[in-house]
Specification:
The chain is mostly helical. 70% of the residues lie in helices and 0% in strands.
Length: 64
């Protein structure tokens, strides 16, 4: 189990864990899961890096 998933399981309100896992999903081209984690982090009040959001938007072929 990836450490980012373990962190989310331990504390589901740790927004940075969701953004870190979103980056892992992005790197493995699992864009839908990346978007899910981005939205969860944002719902928890975390401001996701704009550069990452732009890269994810371009790679996934969709807007946020």
């Amino acid at each position: 189990m990836p450490i980012t998933t373990k962190a989310v399981q331990i504390n589901g309100r740790f927004a940075m864990a969701f953004t870190n896992r979103a980056q892992v999903y992005y790197n493995t081209k699992n864009y839908e899961k990346a978007w899910n984690d981005v939205h969860k982090a944002e719902a928890l009040g975390y401001q996701v890096d704009l550069t990452f959001l732009n890269a994810l938007s371009e790679a996934s072929g969709r807007a946020k």
